[in-house]
Amino acid sequence: MTSSGHGAPEGGARLRVAVLALEWPSTDRHSGGVGRYTKRLCEWLSAHVDLTVVTGPAPEPMDGSGRLLVADVAGFAGRFSRYYVRPVRAARLVAEIEPDIVHSHGDDWPVVFSRREHPPVLRTYHGRSASEARSGPLLRRANHVVMAAVENLSRSRYAVAVGVGPESTEAFRCHRLIPPVFGLGAGGPVVKAPEPMAAFVGGFHSRKRGELALHAAREARRRLPTMRFAVVGPAADRCHYPDWVEFHEELDDAAVRELIGQAWVLLAPSSYEGFGIPAWEAMALETAVLATRNPGIEFLSSGQSCLVVDDGRLGSELVGLLEQHDARAAQATRGLARAMEVAEMGRPERYLELYRAMAGRVTPLPGTARVNP
């Protein structure tokens, strides 16, 4: 395939797209929702563009025709390497690929601040570092403060910006809002557990606040001793939960879907979400969502599709949802309707449209997105 510089490919040739995704799921560490969504999206995109994914060590294999390139930084480890060394190596790989378009899911500062000419960059914002800096361990908060400054400085250097939720879309003046839900919800119906069951997905000492979810589950079990509580989290968190908790680590998407679908209620007490993938999946599976307030949940709970409460009411409201079938069913019905609205907004074809606009194959993009939750 031939192209002139970083302009559009000639004729009907497939666009060469480099995806920068250092959060790609890995075979040797816990994988979050952002990485798993990016993998599903890339597997779909690989059927439509010439795709190369630049990622971190030990990546899970990708289905489809795309290829994976690892930004190896042997001899370096830890948070500093992840955020300040590996992105430099990744930028070099992107330059070697010479794509027509770069699609970044973060960690692109060495690309956009390079003195070299680089292809147009589409950035997907999965949240705001400035918001994440308000919670979590001190070192993590400090890192997010630095990354927030980088995010703000980088914004003017992107050809196109996409937000996964209203907060990031508005804060970064994005062209589109595309929720990260593609590839979720596939499969047949899931049968609810015969006994009361709650579920939680996330870390214990993190913004997901597994500790708060466990406290609510303990309170509910005093009223409902047969209640099951299932948790999906990193292996290191197992020690924080008592034996009666059904703890699961490193489940694939299908297994997580099965567990959330069996639950009567999903607990989502996160202090911050740019979107909230587990909550959306619960809604799509007609599982009631009990959450605390954050930007992602506020977007998803439009029309009272989720029950949003203060921290101190999680336990009592969990009891109420588990005991009151009609109220739980009504919320689940509203949640399903809202989930389908959001799914339409998250169609992957919308990214193809943006790629083609960036390559000059269709009408140029209009201004920033109008967010109407």
At a glance:
The chain is an alpha/beta fold. The chain has 13 helices and 13 strands.
Q: If you had to describe this structure to a student in words, what would you say it looks like?
A:
- By secondary structure, this protein is α/β, with parallel strands linked by helices.
- 38% of the residues lie in helices and 14% in strands.
- The strands form two sheets. A seven-stranded parallel β-sheet has the order 3-2-1-4-5-6-7, with helices on both faces.
- The longest helix is centred in the C-terminal third of the chain and has 21 residues, at 325-345.
- Mean pLDDT is 90; it is low at 1-5.
Q: What's the helix-strand series?
A: EHEEHEHEHHEHEEHEEHEHEHEHHH
Please describe the biggest sheet, giving its number of strands, its sense, and whether it closes into a barrel.
7 strands, parallel
**Sequence of strands across the biggest β-sheet:** 3-2-1-4-5-6-7
Radius of gyration: 21 Å
From the spread of the alpha carbons, the general shape counts as globular
Q: How many strands?
A: 13
Task: Give unreliable regions as ranges.
Answer: 1-5
Number of helices: 13
**Terminal residue distance:** 42 Å
Helicity level, as a percent range?
A: 25-40%
Mean pLDDT across residues: 90
SSE class: alpha/beta
Strand-residue proportion: 5-15%
